[in-house]
Design goal:
Order of helices and strands: EEEEEHEEEEEE
Strand order of the largest sheet: 1-2-5-4
Radius of gyration: 29 Å
Strand content: 35-45%
Number of strands: 11
Number of helices: 1
Largest sheet: 4 strands, antiparallel
Distance between the termini: 77 Å
Shape: rod-shaped
Structural class: mainly beta
């Protein structure tokens, strides 16, 4: 007699996409797609797909209707992750890893757990807006008296999508003095 050897095995691939080329907007959704394929020689069951950074990984498609991951069959899972200001401020790609495991239908033998990582690029767009206005120390819009002082008001705000630190304001008319607006963290934030 010749022994029949069961070889339960899986492969996994993972990818991530956003609505455009990169993650660049707070609240934007990253969609993660995870493909799990039976690369062994026996049908597989109890397929478990996890991703530590994506809580809502769900089966999407691929089963032929029997609830068994047949040899050569690929099941597709998806999950989403929301882009946060912290992700954009960090300025590094959003990376994470998905894992898949399962067992042979007849023998119950576990396939080795497999994993794959994927990343989505984060794009920073730092923008600073500055407006300057002046009035006299008498509250007038024009200087009409010798010795009258001009009070300059310079307002700095953040545009773009990333918080900005180390903001320096200079003026050819003198050294500006910070007056108000920061919440105490010395970072120029949206709003």
């Amino acid at each position: 007699s010749v022994e029949v050897c069961h070889d339960p095995a899986l492969s996994i691939t993972k990818s991530g996409t956003t609505g455009d080329d990169c993650a660049d907007e707070v609240g934007e959704t990253i969609t993660w797609t995870i493909n799990v394929t039976n690369t062994g020689n026996v049908a597989m069951q109890n397929i478990v797909v996890t991703d530590p950074n994506v809580a809502n990984v769900v089966y999407s498609s691929g089963d032929n209707g029997n609830g068994i991951l047949d040899v050569g069959e690929t099941w597709v899972y998806t999950g989403t992750q929301t882009v946060t200001q912290a992700m954009i401020n960090a300025g590094v790609d959003v990376e994470n890893v998905a894992y898949a495991s399962g067992e042979a239908v007849i023998s119950g033998e576990d396939a080795a757990q497999v994993s794959d990582d994927a990343s989505v690029e984060v794009c920073q767009d730092p923008v600073i807006y500055i407006t300057k206005s002046g009035t006299t120390d008498q509250g007038d819009d024009c200087v009409d008296v010798i010795g009258e002082n001009v009070v300059w008001r310079i307002e700095v705000s953040r545009g773009g999508n990333v918080d900005i630190d180390n903001v320096v304001v200079t003026d050819t008319r003198g050294t500006p003095t910070y007056v108000s607006g920061d919440d105490g963290d010395n970072v120029l934030e949206a709003g």
